[in-house]
Amino acid sequence: MIEIRPGLWLDERDLEERFVRAAGPGGQNVNKLASAVELRFDLWNCTTLPGEVRWRASQIAGRRLNKEGVVVIQAQRFRTQDANRRDAMARLAELIAAAAEPPAPPRKATRVPKAQKRARLEAKKKTSERKAGRARPSGDD
């Protein structure tokens, strides 16, 4: 079991790691070693996550979620397989933790009070009169 946060766990049986050759850092070893990690997490069939967390995670995952309901995370940022594995797990944990946060309630629309509207318009009128007083006198004299 992998703990995401207190009370939220992932079963290791729902995870699958594949190691592939990576483009990017690695020097001469980039053509010889499989240092990139492809982490696959079966989101739709995961029994340890509540349904609402799975639904929100599928919304957050975006393109990383395939048609079978599997989240695919590719990590090839680092030179070593171990560092890429930790990076992929951290990104998956971040996705699940974000999905576990309950959404914010919708904002209730409120009206601006009449007194506040009136005060704003009066302030605008005073500013307008003050600036009009700064204008050059017209040449009608």
What does it look like?
The chain is an alpha+beta fold. It has a single domain, classed as Double Stranded RNA Binding Domain, CATH 3.30.160. It is 35% helix and 18% strand. It has three helices and five strands. It has helices at 51-61, 81-100, 114-132, and strands spanning 2-5, 8-10, 15-20, 36-42, 70-75. The chain has a three-stranded antiparallel beta sheet, with helices on one face. Strands 1-2 form a two-stranded antiparallel ribbon. A hairpin with a 2-residue loop joins strand 1 (2-5) and strand 2 (8-10). Helix 1 packs across helix 2 (81-100). The model has no long low-confidence stretch (mean pLDDT 83).
Sketch the topology as an H/E string, one letter per element.
EEEEHEHH
Q: Globular, elongated, flat, extended or rod-shaped: what is the shape?
A: elongated
Residues in helices, as a percent range = 25-40%
Average pLDDT across residues?
83
Quick structural gist:
This protein is of the alpha+beta class. It is built from three helices and five strands, in the order E-E-E-E-H-E-H-H.
Defining traits:
141 residues; alpha+beta; Double Stranded RNA Binding Domain; three-stranded antiparallel sheet; two-stranded antiparallel sheet; 3 helices
How do the helices and strands line up, and which of them pair or pack?
Layout: E1 2-5, E2 8-10, E3 15-20, E4 36-42, H1 51-61, E5 70-75, H2 81-100, H3 114-132
Antiparallel strand pairs: 1-2, 3-4, 4-5
Helix pairs in contact: 1-2
